[in-house]
């Protein structure tokens, strides 16, 4: 297994490098960094000087190396739009996005898995049909529409929940959390639900189809032939086999959630990384764009790694590495 | 005469499809005596497996029992509700399937699967169950049983896996085991071992076996009596010696004649022209008549019941005059 | 004559097949198909059936702005579903907007299909280093959500293109971006099927005869791997519509002068509090119905074409 981990880490590094190259290309070549930073009165000579100072005339490899080094140290440059260091901006915004994403992910798991299990076990019952319909709607309604509808109902018509912002936050060192205040909790409900809804339907469908697939296998038939109780068959054998791929896929989806937060943050004006990124797109604020790219890639890569390792721990067939990976 | 352990009376298995109701097993009746090995032989699609599934109550929809009765020790079992049938499964009737790899849950150790089954049907404590498991594995011929109970199915070879499967089926001492093609998925060299094991174990535990297979060699090896099925009907039942050495039914004759033998000299293997009809296209009268070299008028019009010609029973109009007792 | 007879024969076989049977049997699917067809048709014929041409600034009158739907007191039958902040008729804008949404979605899907199927065929058939390379790219791309890729491409296009060209090119940039972000599913499926087909006899015989690789791939293998491609295409269409709507909602999609359904919803959201709910709800409902219908169709197709479930 250690060999496997090392291999995965090397793969991750390669991915990060590729992303770094893309980010660097963006950073350096899309638009002109100098024109973005100076006013119109600056003379050409001054611009040239600036260019020289910024090291924009050095060979590409050197520039890339500098870029990579800076990135690793967390020096992401200065935002064109806001004029502040990018890493400060992200540090402020990261907690908001991460909290939202984690709550959304939790929500989708806690509700989605039972729904999926139920519809997989009892596909012909009325409740299953109801769940199926909900899942279809969940997949068809775009995230932003769900958010807007929620705002309409709970924010405008019923006035139960705040319609934008994060509520009161408490500063814990570098991290700011909204989960410890009443208004913060109220504020996170609708955004988390919106963000998690798509995930929920995905998980529900996945669990359902996995469950149905598992229930058709020979070992389930054999378990029934041995007279095991329904509980043992459905929840002991079937469920466990179903959840193994589900948990890993869900883990992988976490990265997706973080990215989808862009939309939710826009609808609810949630002060997170996603909103920052969106604004950087609208204004062609390249340093922010490329930093976001790197950060997201980093999250993805780390999550993938953890999930991979988890998968190997949970499925005994994979523990013995290459030897006996037989049919599922 | 000993009381039969299992009585099948006029069993009929149907499938509801959009083209109408298909009859897969059409009015078969037979008995199984305690401790005997009863073979059911026939081509793929003849209805053998379905019969086995019907007996243990695991017919998959849209298949269902259309008519007939099944008795286990004089208790009628074909109409029992699920939870009552569950208690009988494993404890009174066991079943083993064709592929030992897919019959075992890959995520549970072999020991756990055994202990679970034992605890479901008996009053033992977990420790006792564990001890029993070790002795079972020993009995089926798995070396180092104590170590092996914490191994996973994929860590066993094919033959060893089937031994585990047999252990699972026998662990709470059922009176009857239905073995559906138990050796088909195994190497030829292993087949003989497994068959011998089955024979020995069932003798020791006084367990009856219904051995379903298309392999006559296996039948000849361990069965006491055998029934030949064709197109969902029984065409001949008798002791192995009678049916194999002196088959009466033309189809059975063809079947036995097509087995290569080291002992007889023959220029060519006997072949039966044509193929078994599909469920939708079963001809009227005797299902075999289009392929039968001795076919006459009656065969095309009326379907023959099993005629009791001592010592075996044959469903063929050729033997009408030899009827020794009331028609079965 | 022969071709007519053959066509009739094919028609017969189609109507006798399991696919048609399962289609007829599911009322839900029939409704979904009808809805999809109606929406596509109305979007297509928008210039002729829409009561107003909302893209023409000359016809707009700010005095008409914020008219509520016709069944309200202040509403008029001239503007069935009300008007927005610029006086545009909501019903007409929905028609035109669906037109754009569907156009972008179809074109993007087509691009993704072309790209994905070709790459899948090549990758599966030729194998080796080329296959490894393509699949590596696919692996990296699939781990990123499509939205991100589309956003990035939009952002880059925005910085690279001079401001004036933005508006003209926006639609094409969008089509390109959505297409590029979706080729992987097609490629993977086609690659898998190709690798299976590669070993079949009809391919071997074609090779023995000496056919060129391209011919073998596109004329012989392609028809046999198209089945799942259609399913992915249908579901992908729904995804494309959603993606375009989302991007437009975020403000980086189609230009605001030619609003798609997403843009309309974006505009509408700001007026939600003021009580002018119709600006956001009607386009939203239209979008939802369209995507729902396409999803249902895709679901049915997938179940109907799946041999395991028969």
Keywords:
heterotrimer; A: 328 residues; mainly alpha; two-stranded antiparallel ribbon; 13 helices; 2 strands; globular; B: 328 residues; alpha/beta; Rossmann fold; eight-stranded mixed beta sheet; four-stranded antiparallel beta sheet
Describe the structure.
The complex is a heterotrimer of chains A (328), B (328) and C (310). Chain A has 328 residues and is mainly α. Chain A has helices spanning 2-29, 33-37, 44-53, 60-73, 86-121, 126-140, 143-157, 182-215, 218-225, 230-268, 273-282, 286-314, 316-319, and strands spanning 170-172, 175-177. Chain A has 13 helices and two strands, in the order H-H-H-H-H-H-H-E-E-H-H-H-H-H-H. Chain A has a two-stranded antiparallel ribbon with strand order 1-2. In chain A, strand 1 and strand 2 (175-177) form a beta hairpin. Chain B has 328 residues and is of the alpha/beta class. Helix content of chain B is 33%, strand content 23%. Chain B is built from twelve helices and twelve strands. The chains are: A mainly alpha (328), B alpha/beta (328), C mainly alpha (310). The A-C interface holds A 15, 18, 26, 30-31, 136-137, 139-145, 148-149, 151-152, 156, 163, 252, 255-256, 259-260, 262-263, 266-267, 277-278, 280-282, 284, 286, 289, 293, 296-297, 300, 304 and C 140, 143-145, 147-148, 151-152, 154-156, 158-160, 238, 242, 245-246, 249-252, 262, 265, 269, 272-273, 277, 280-281, 284, 287-288, 291-292, 295-296, 299.
């Amino acid at each position: 297994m250690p060999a496997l981990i090392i291999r995965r880490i090397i793969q991750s590094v390669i991915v990060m490098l590729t992303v770094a190259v893309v980010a660097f290309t963006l950073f350096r070549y899309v638009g002109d960094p100098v024109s973005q930073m100076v006013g119109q009165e600056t003379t050409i000579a001054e611009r040239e000087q600036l260019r020289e100072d910024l090291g924009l005339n050095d060979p590409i490899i050197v520039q890339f190396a500098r870029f990579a080094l800076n990135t690793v140290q967390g020096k992401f440059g200065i935002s064109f739009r806001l004029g502040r260091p990018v890493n400060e901006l992200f540090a402020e915004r990261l907690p908001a996005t991460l909290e939202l994403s984690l709550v959304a992910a939790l929500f989708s798991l806690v509700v989605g898995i039972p729904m999926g299990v139920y519809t997989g076990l009892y596909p012909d019952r009325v409740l299953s049909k109801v769940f199926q319909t909900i899942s279809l709607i969940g997949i068809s309604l775009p995230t932003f529409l769900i958010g807007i509808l929620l705002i309409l109902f709970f924010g405008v018509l019923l006035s139960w929940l705040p319609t934008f912002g994060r509520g009161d936050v408490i500063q814990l060192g570098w991290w700011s959390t909204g989960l410890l205040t009443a208004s913060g909790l109220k504020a996170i409900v609708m955004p988390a639900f919106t963000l998690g809804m798509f995930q929920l339907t995905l998980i529900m469908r996945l669990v359902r189809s996995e469950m149905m697939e598992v229930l058709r296998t020979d070992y389930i038939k054999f378990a029934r032939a041995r007279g095991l109780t329904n509980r043992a068959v459905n929840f002991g054998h079937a469920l466990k086999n179903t959840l193994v791929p589900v948990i890993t896929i869900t883990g992988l989806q976490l990265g997706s959630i973080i990215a989808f937060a862009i939309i939710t943050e826009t609808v609810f004006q949630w002060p997170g990384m996603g909103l920052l990124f969106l604004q950087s797109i609208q204004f062609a604020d390249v340093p922010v764009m490329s930093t976001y790219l790197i950060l997201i890639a980093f999250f993805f890569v780390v999550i993938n790694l953890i999930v991979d390792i988890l998968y190997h721990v949970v499925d005994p067939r994979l523990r013995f590495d290459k030897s006996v990976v037989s049919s599922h | 005469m000993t009381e039969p352990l299992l009585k099948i009376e006029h069993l009929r298995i149907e499938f509801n499809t959009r083209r109408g109701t298909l009859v897969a097993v059409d009015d078969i009746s037979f008995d199984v005596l305690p401790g005997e090995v009863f073979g059911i032989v026939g081509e793929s699609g003849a209805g053998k497996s379905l019969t086995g599934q019907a007996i243990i109550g695991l017919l998959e929809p849209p298949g269902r029992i259309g008519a007939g009765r099944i008795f286990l020790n004089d208790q009628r079992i074909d109409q029992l509700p699920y939870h009552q049938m569950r208690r009988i499964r494993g404890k009174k009737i066991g079943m083993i399937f064709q592929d030992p790899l897919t019959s075992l849950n890959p995520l549970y150790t072999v020991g756990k699967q055994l202990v679970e089954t034992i605890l479901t049907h008996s009053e033992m404590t977990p420790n006792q169950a564990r001890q029993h498991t070790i002795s079972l594995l020993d009995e089926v011929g798995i070396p180092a049983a104590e170590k092996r109970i914490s191994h996973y199915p994929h860590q066993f070879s094919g033959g060893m896996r089937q031994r585990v499967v047999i252990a699972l089926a026998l662990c709470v001492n059922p009176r009857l085991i239905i073995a559906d093609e138990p050796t088909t998925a195994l190497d030829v060299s292993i087949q003989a071992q497994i068959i011998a094991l089955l024979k020995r174990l069932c003798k020791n535990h006084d367990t009856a076996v219904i051995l379903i297979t298309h392999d006559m060699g296996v039948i000849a090896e361990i069965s006491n009596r055998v029934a030949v099925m064709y197109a969902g009907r029984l065409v001949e039942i008798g002791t192995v010696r009678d049916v194999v050495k002196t088959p009466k039914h033309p189809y059975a004759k063809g079947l036995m004649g097509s087995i290569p033998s080291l002992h007889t000299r023959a220029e060519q293997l006997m072949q039966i022209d044509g193929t078994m009809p599909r469920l939708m296209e079963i001809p009227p009268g005797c299902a075999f008549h289009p392929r039968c070299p001795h076919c006459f008028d009656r065969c095309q019009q009326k379907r023959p019941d099993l005629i009791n010609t001592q010592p075996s029973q044959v469903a063929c109009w050729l033997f009408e005059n030899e009827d020794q007792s009331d028609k079965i | 004559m022969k071709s007519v007879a053959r066509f009739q024969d094919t028609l017969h076989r189609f109507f006798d097949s399991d696919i048609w049977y399962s289609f007829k049997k599911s009322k839900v699917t029939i409704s979904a198909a009808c809805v999809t067809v109606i929406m596509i048709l109305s979007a297509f014929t928008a210039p002729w059936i829409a009561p107003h041409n909302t893209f023409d600034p000359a016809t707009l009158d700010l005095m008409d702005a914020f008219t509520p739907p016709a069944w309200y007191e202040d509403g008029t039958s001239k503007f069935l579903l009300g008007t927005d902040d610029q006086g545009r008729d909501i019903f007409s804008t929905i028609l035109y907007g669906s037109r754009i949404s569907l156009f972008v979605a179809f074109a993007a899907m087509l691009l993704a299909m072309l790209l994905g199927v070709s790459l899948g065929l090549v990758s599966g058939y030729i194998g080796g280093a080329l296959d490894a390379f393509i699949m590596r790219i696919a692996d990296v791309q699939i781990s990123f959500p499509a939205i991100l890729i589309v956003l990035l491409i939009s952002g880059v296009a925005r910085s690279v293109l001079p401001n004036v060209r933005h508006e003209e090119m926006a639609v094409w940039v969008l089509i390109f971006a959505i297409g590029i972000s979706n080729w992987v599913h097609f490629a993977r499926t086609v690659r898998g099927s190709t690798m299976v087909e590669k070993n079949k006899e009809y391919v071997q015989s074609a090779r023995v005869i000496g056919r060129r690789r391209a011919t073998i791939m596109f004329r012989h293998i392609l028809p046999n791997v198209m089945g799942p491609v259609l399913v992915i295409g249908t579901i992908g269409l729904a995804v494309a519509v959603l993606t375009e709507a989302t991007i437009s909602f975020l403000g980086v999609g189609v230009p605001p002068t030619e609003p798609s359904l997403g843009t309309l919803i974006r505009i509408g959201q700001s007026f939600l509090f003021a009580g002018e709910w119709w600006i956001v709800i009607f386009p939203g409902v239209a979008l939802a119905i369209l995507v729902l219908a396409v999803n249902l169709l895709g679901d049915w197709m997938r179940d109907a074409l799946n041999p395991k479930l028969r």
